[in-house]
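[job 4417] fold queue: 2 targets
>>> target A
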Amino acid sequence: MHAWPASEVPALPGQGRDLRIHDTATGGLVTLDPGPVARIYVCGITPYDATHIGHAATYNAFDLVQRVWLDTKRQVHYVQNVTDVDDPLLERAERDGVDWVALAEKETALFREDMTALRILPPQHYIGAVEAIPGIVPLVERLRELGAAYELEGDIYFSVESDANFGSVSNLDAAAMRLLSAERGGDPDRPGKKNPLDPMLWMAAREGEPSWDGASLGRGRPGWHIECVAIALDHLGMGFDVQGGGSDLAFPHHEMGASHAQVLTGEFPMAKAYVHAGMVALHGAKMSKSKGNLVFVSQLRRDGVDPAAIRLALLGHHYRADWEWTDEVLQDAMARLGRWRAAVSRPDGPSADALVEEIREALTNDLDAPAALAAVDRWAERQETEDGTDTGAPGVVTRAVDALLGVAL
């Protein structure tokens, strides 16, 4: 599966700093010090209704991570999956009377278009669950050999008790885990499971549903968590720098995935930092496909909204915050974009050297994009009120805003 084209990232004078970011597992800020190549895995979409503003906010957050690392002169090895076979996708295809493969391809293509428009830097490896199945099957077989998996009516489950570090990502108690498991794709009430929290590794073939040859597992399809584990281990290995996604993925998805990988490899942890973006609401409720309260990036673009304004609207909120999308949020972003473009259109201006460092400082402090925007606002205000003499300043601001914030002026 191919990703989307990368926009050029301008080079800036000087060099960025190491990123301090909030780690869900420890509950505090950690300073990441990758080697020459920084490694990040971000969980991708289930392509049955893409791309809403909540998706865009998440991928925008991890795009900032990439940009901070690139500014330190590191290379970035970024991997993202596409869950292109799963119950919600099959249910939507049946509801709409369309082929599930065609639906997945259509929505994935739309997602690519939206990411390109928003100038989100693409992953080096963009892998679908279906194409990952040949690598998933041996991992499930290995977990069975290790005694960490068991069969229940043809389905294969992972035993969470096989991982001594289970629970170390989300730090939730058993009662909270059970509630979230039921809400987020698990089956804690299924009779016969060793532990209600045990997640499915391999679902035996169901009549009328797609299935693949699973060798000793029989025909079926992979569970949700083992999909990402197989892709991450194949392309990044253990101990990569950041595991990212929305905050609703901390449990069960990232918790279960970490346990799968840790049992398979005997190493801990799977990732050095577990980083989670907040949820975006609309009309007082979390924006979600199940509720249908969605604002789509593609619809905004069709309505003529500049993608740079959409991105500024996202950047106006700290990535970990839960916030609400409103018409006012978008209008404010459009007005800000207009002020910035007017400021850089002048032939000279006040020096922008300090501004570049302010943006860098803000982003390396847990991706504080609102502080970075405020710094650019201050420069734009000075541009209006001061007689600038630096002919290079508007160009410096344009390149810095592009390189570090992904906004094209």
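>>> target B
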Amino acid sequence: MRAANGAPERSEDMKVFIAGGRGRVGSRLADTLEAEGIEVVSGGLEDGIDVISGKGLAEALVGIDTIVNVLNTPRFDAEGAVSFFEGSIDTLTAEGVRAGVRHHIVLSIVGVGEGDASEVGYYLGKVAQERALRSAPIPATIVRATQFQSYIPVLIDQHTVDGKVLAPRSYIQPVALDEVVDLLAEAVTMPEPGSEVEIAGPDRFFHDDLFRATLAHRGDPREVVTVDGEGPVGAMVPRGAHRKGTVRYPITGIPTA
């Protein structure tokens, strides 16, 4: 139900489409919004919806007030990442305009908006995603987060070469996933879309220190080798005003940067 100005009358009258609603972020966000009385429609291949081709999307967006886009791709090459992130924005925008969607929220990454990560294919995709979102006619909000705390072991694996972990001496400020989800939920009910909000964890570390402590805590014997980073030391942490989480990384005694 909408008021005379087209806005949802109350949060329980809202209907939200989560692109990527069955994933790690989307499923938690769906639970949070539903607990607040907001109707949620999940959108992904598991739901018979393809946000690239548009299959099933028009039907899913009927009556939707807000799209929350937490889609991800396993493609880390520039061509694949840009094609996915840009293409999904274009399709969601086209169908969203037809459906009368009033707000499009995207989860992005701290640092990509500064252009420092432009040599990394995946980040190039996120830059393209943000650019496409800003140029679209649907009012948009960008929520940028630092690396999730729960993802650090996977990040370590991604930095492992020939059994050794190659870790840059650059900053990392991991944030708890639940705090990112809470911020996305806030963005859904905000009265005026159009902002850019960044969130990071409460503590800043160097990658190599964080990796060593995490491996030691897990009893993993892999050696961490400190290497030069590919960009500025603070490329992937906030540089200005941001939301600071309160949940600390679950391993104590790590030197802060």
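[job 4417] complete. Note on B: The two ends are 49 Å apart (CA to CA).
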